[in-house]
Amino acid sequence: MLAVTEEMRTVMDFARKVLEGDGLGPDACDFMFGNPQETPLRGLVDALIRHVEPQDVHWFGYKKYEAPARESVARSLSQARSRHYKPDDIAITAGGFGAIAAALLAVLEVGDQVIYPRPGWFAYGAQIRGAAGTPIAVDLAPGTYDLDLERIEAAITGRTRVVVVNTPHNPTGRIFPRAQLDALADKLAAASERFGKVIYLLADEPYARLVFDGHAHISPAESYPHTLIAYSFGKTLLAPGERLGWLALGADMPEADRIRLREAVDMAQVSHGWAFAGRTLQRALPDLEKLSIDVAALARRRDRMVEGLRAAGYDLPVPEGTFYLIPRSPIPDDMAFAARLATDGVWVLPGSVAQLPGRLRISLTANDDMVERSLPVFARAIGEVAG
């Protein structure tokens, strides 16, 4: 856990500094961690109310899975991805954190290496350490933020057990194309044969439904049979505090491996503190599966923010998915520039916290009013440093 602490130190120190300060008041423009800034979806609230009312004395008793929850996920995956997913291959987890933890705990031996993308989600290293693994960060291709297949291949050793692919990618918004995923699959298959053991691919897909401009989400599971898919409802419902997600075994995984992994994932959740999603959330899942925040409205917010930031002089790509923007900081010290914005009530995540030094990460979970109030602050701040 001390190693986990070191992996999380940068983000935790930043969060502590923000939360212990007095600047993040009710009028602040909060673009930091992706916390919701609008009222929760009415369908989410209604589903929770409907399913929390006890129907028998066992309503809140011990139970790992509610069958309708697993069936709903399997049905939705099968329809969306033109493959047959089985309910028995779906683990309902305590959010995306729980899904990733279950996957890593199920397949890692002590000291096994896990390759993950940099820049990337700030908790990968911590979760790998927490499962007694060794995190190996591999940079995405500079500029394009594509998978750097040569770097990934060079990082694979006899101790490599998992390669993480996050698409659409946090924080860049990149959707990795099929050709890259196919090429990665070929390299993982060759390395698995060379070292005499399966190297798993962990497809981290919490933003799979948050895609823009006619883009389609492309899952690595369709390229590589030994894939585990992690998903969180916290993004599409914009309710990250309600811990609901799932882990699915790839539909093309060989049956012998599937049987062993079902048991391993199950025991990973038991041994990790009974890390199954709560029964009310599981009962509500078939209703929640049909819900989503307004992706078209999110795209309009993205476009407004990109337009305003570019007009002010910021350099930033247009994301294909997720709800983040990554403008370049106008000064090399992104921490210092984020602090400057905060003095005027605009709070962003410094890129250094997300392994993206020299940039800022802006979460579009802020509401439209925050966007409009923030743009003059962004313009004024860049004008000060340019002048």
Automatic annotation (TrEMBL):
Pfam families (alphabetical): Aminotran_1_2 (PF00155)
Domain Aminotransferase class I/classII large: 40-373
Keyword Transferase attached: yes
Protein's name in the database: Aminotransferase
Family: Belongs to the class-I pyridoxal-phosphate-dependent aminotransferase family.
Keywords in alphabetical order: Aminotransferase, Transferase
EC number: 2.6.1.-
GO molecular function: pyridoxal phosphate binding; transaminase activity
Cross-referenced SUPFAM superfamilies: PLP-dependent transferases
